[in-house]
TrEMBL record, chain A:
Enzyme Commission numbers on file: 7.1.1.-
Gene Ontology terms for molecular function: NADH dehydrogenase (quinone) (non-electrogenic) activity; quinone binding
Presence of the UniProt keyword DNA damage in the record: no
Stated name of the protein: NADH-quinone oxidoreductase subunit K
One Gene Ontology term, aspect cellular component: plasma membrane
Membrane topology of this protein: Multi-pass membrane protein
TrEMBL record, chain B:
Keyword Transmembrane helix found: yes
Known role: NDH-1 shuttles electrons from NADH, via FMN and iron-sulfur (Fe-S) centers, to quinones in the respiratory chain. Couples the redox reaction to proton translocation (for every two electrons transferred, four hydrogen ions are translocated across the cytoplasmic membrane), and thus conserves the redox energy in a proton gradient.
Organism this protein belongs to: Prevotella histicola JCM 15637 = DNF00424
The protein's name in its UniProt record: NADH-quinone oxidoreductase subunit J
Lineage: Bacteria, Pseudomonadati, Bacteroidota, Bacteroidia, Bacteroidales
Keyword terms: Cell membrane, Membrane, NAD, Quinone, Transmembrane, Transmembrane helix
EC number, as in UniProt: 7.1.1.-
Amino acid sequence: MIPVGYFFVLSGLLFFIGVFGFVTRRNLVAMLISVELVLNSVDINFAAFNRLLFPDGYEGMFFTLFSIGVSAAESAVALAIIINVYRHFHSDQVNSIENMKL
Amino acid sequence: MARLIMFAILAVVILASAIFCVSTKRIMRAATALLFVLFGVAGLYFLLDYTFLGATQISIYAGGITMMYIFAIQLVSKRTLQGLSERWLGKRTFLAAAIALVGFATVVVVLLKNELINNTIINGDTLSKEVTMDTIGQNLMSADKYGYVLPFEFISVFLLACIIGGLVILNNNKKEEESK
């Protein structure tokens, strides 16, 4: 039997590792990878809340499913935008993007 | 006890891969570390007896999203792939670490002091109750209480919008290049 607090501490650590990566990285793809870490920590919390605290309902499980679907769509569109940005600016670093439009 | 040992192994794998993912200079290694984090999270879902969620995590995240990232990394930049462009940021790194530590401390204090969580009694047999495929299907397609047909339909429209949006974004640029 795993105490609920362990899941919270794990997902909190994962969340803030993701935040750390998002702040320190200067590469667009690496920043997006950090965002994926954050999204995964949220999914862990949904599942752990549902299973360990409210085992009669299925809300956490379904919201994790929807969250996985939404984050897949999000990363697809974001990668399309990044490839587009790279074609415009010939760089994938955030500090090289200064104008919205060429 | 066996579950606790499995949880400890998965937690170590997840946290070590996540730290490697945000600290490595080479972006392809970061993507590989992300793959290990995703497998670890899928293992947590299996540990919680959400087998459908674990399978979804492996097939969508580990199979689809990681593949997409690797394609994007290959397409985007050669300099990044060789690890030439990332550099140690110095002061900003310490600032980010301080922000992360303060935030983590706040979250842990709030969660562990929470009365709702501490007062909920967990009985051991809830952990081995698997959600059947039948229940998932019934819940996803019903419009009653605890039915999820509205978000289900919304997500199908949303995914279609994302497919069209991605194609439009990439296609738009091709026209511009041709006109040049």
